[in-house]
Protein 1
Amino acid sequence: MDRLIVDGYNIIYAWPELSATKDVSLEDAREALIAILADYAALGRLQVTVVFDSHRRPDAAGSTQTISGVRVVYSGRKSSADSVIERLLFEAEKADEVTLATSDGVQRDLALGKGIKTMSALTLKSQVEAATSRRNSQMRDRRDRSDLSRRLEDRLDPGSRERLDRLRGLKPPDQKPT
């Protein structure tokens, strides 16, 4: 399974809608990013890990949890998100198809040096939007096809439909088929 490692705050600051949300509530911005990544992970059958800094808070302990299928890592007070991402990159197996999403040049250079693909925050945004758009289009197409074929009687030829109407008592038996 492909893996995506996301530099959480880097993405939040780069995406305009998340950046505006963080100005009101950083927690809401994190939750929104996690929800977006969960949807994207499901659409692309990806294993997503998002890493957030928490080293600047003296009471912050490092933690890892899974939210809606997304592995969420908080760095803790003794390390930064960058150091957690570096560890994840070095732990990646050769057989893993790993991509790092960040606009941090140092992190991207480190990943590229290890042979790991990278994408900028805005490239991730465009890929998420494209995947969501494809899904929405497929859902509209399925709904439209479903609406067309919802009733069996609407798919019957006129003769079969008339015989069905007679069986259901909607037409008298002596009436000739048309």
Note: The mean pLDDT is 86.
Protein 2
Amino acid sequence: MHTFARTQNNWVLMEMDPENEVWIHTEEARKLGLKNGDYVYLVNQDGVREGPVRVKATERIRKDCVYLVHGFGHKAPLMKVAHSRGASDNYLQTRYKLDPISGGAGLRVNFVRLEKAERPRLPSLASLARRPFEERRM
């Protein structure tokens, strides 16, 4: 639906895909007392906290991993539609290792724990779509 982090401020697309979800294996979710639709914060090994983000319990992921779609969790206040919807994987990536041959960054050295959270109270997308045209262009 969305293209990288470029389309989250488009209210038409956000109506179809309004926030990302954190995927977690069904058994791990059950151990943590979580179910589909619950909200959590993700806290990495350095104490960086992101979210809240909705839980998607599924067996389509390994038990020792979580998955998050890239491009959500924007902090810029002028991105009025996307502001604070979901969690940002970028903010959680505080450590990396560089490959000595290619120079590519290995970002799979970051770990998170999940903390229960309340459902966020955000303005409806419909109310944001009704803003004056001049304000939407900002």
Note: Residues 11-16 form the longest helix (6 residues).
Protein 3
Amino acid sequence: MGRLRIGTVGAGTGRGQSWMSSLDKLTRLSDLYEFCGFCEVNEQKRAASAETWGVPGYASLIEMLDGAAPDAVLGAAPPDANLMTLGVCAERGVHVMTEIPIAPTLAMADFMVEQARAAGIVLEVAEQVWLWADESGCGPTNSSSVSSWMPA
């Protein structure tokens, strides 16, 4: 089995860079994953991130899907971009993972789940559980376990 190729949407200073750092580590430390590219509309952020992480940056999601050919995409852009990300990826059979909130409204979230089901792709919604202890003042955690569920 080959590596799972993962791309990201968004290279912002918050979750975009956090996800990219994690994907870089997974690529270096495991033979299961490959950080294959990212898309970012801001040209300066795109160039800086491409240099920092050593992966190609693309100006749009479609360019990234065509150029990097990821198996899965991590949505690191603001939540209002998740609907578009899921829609484009679903059309191409690319799995999507995003953080909470899944979407700005329940109707949009329901539509995303319907689109994922219809396309036969996995839509995972994650929470940054590893931050909880640090945010509460207890200090960083060393490990955590998160399970996800998407109704069939």
Note: Strands lie at 4-9, 33-39, 57-58, 72-75, 95-99, 123-126.
